[in-house]
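Students often ask what a holo structure prediction actually looks like on paper. The answer is less mysterious than it sounds. You provide the chain, you provide the ligand, and the output is a string of discrete structure tokens encoding the 3D arrangement of the protein together with magnesium ion.
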Amino acid sequence: MKLQDLGEFALIGHLTKKMRTYGNSVVLGIGDDAAAFRAADGKYILVTCDMLVDGHHFWRDRITPEQLGHKALAVSLSDIAAMGGVPRYALLSVGWPTDVDVDYAEGIYHGIEKLAAIHGVFIIGGDTVSAPQLILDVTVIGDMDDDPVTRTGAQTGHLFAVTGSLGASAAGLALLQNGTTGEAILSAASLQALLLSHLMPQPRVKEGAVLVKTGPPSAMIDISDGLASEIHHICEGSGVGAEIDITSLPVHGRTRKAGEFLGKDYLNWALYGGEDYELLVTLAEENAMIVQKELCALDVDFTIIGKVMAKEKGVKLLLGDGKAVDLEKKGFDHFP
Ligand code: ADP
Ligand code: MG
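The corresponding structure tokens follow.
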């Protein structure tokens, strides 16, 4: 059997089967956005890592080195945000093809340093090797006083909600791949915003902390592989079902326009596109308005997109015409 026959998540499950018993200090091991353990002072320490590979997660000729550095750190910060934690330290491991210009390498570090400074994160180490392809792997260590929010706590009757808007990153990627500027239909500012959604995602660190204080969510995950895939992670982890209303998905007007321009379905981007790095949560109905108000003060939308149902109800997508279909599990898989 080959890795591709298993798929990413089954592979992780298979290889880590025997590792999933931990000492008392480990609060969360394999299976969530970040691992968590308790420090001597009672605080939770969070740890996560994420890897980007040239030709797979990015194309060197379509992203600037500064943007690439930003993105490499942003995706790991997003996993700390998804627990509601505060990122503190990062370690940066790089596999460099030996023909990379030193200027280019410096550019990557500038991008990382700039984002690290915004979030008060210190780069405290890493590893450097030569490799046939450029590979960036960023480990982030964070902490929090409150209990970390997992993927496994969703409760029947709670609501599903997301920060920001969906599908913009996939629209930006489609525009990049298309090699077209979309000028005929998109303003320069809209085009730039869509490209940056993909090239320089902004991790929802502040928002994650606000959610923990005001929600608090029963479950939370960041949208890296796609909304549908993350909904399934929460449902499987929590032993619940879902009813997601397709008409309520927050999709920015410029994302819709890009879909029109490229002849693509923007709802497909919103559901299965991935790399939005928004936060998907479940929370009690009575708290949703409070969170909405708090995030509004940060100029961030918070949209209710559905309901947590009993497991027997399955994971459903309610279409505009009142019909319900199974929400497909697909999303980005590293071993499709
Ligand atoms: P995310 O999409 O939030 O980055 P992943 O889907 O990459 O999370 O990983 C899911 C879980 O599996 C995480 O807890 C991660 O630490 C764990 N994991 C991923 N790859 C490995 C591996 N090679 N060995 C052990 N654990 C892994
Ligand atoms: Mg994640």
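The CA atoms of residues 81 and 315 lie 25 Å apart.
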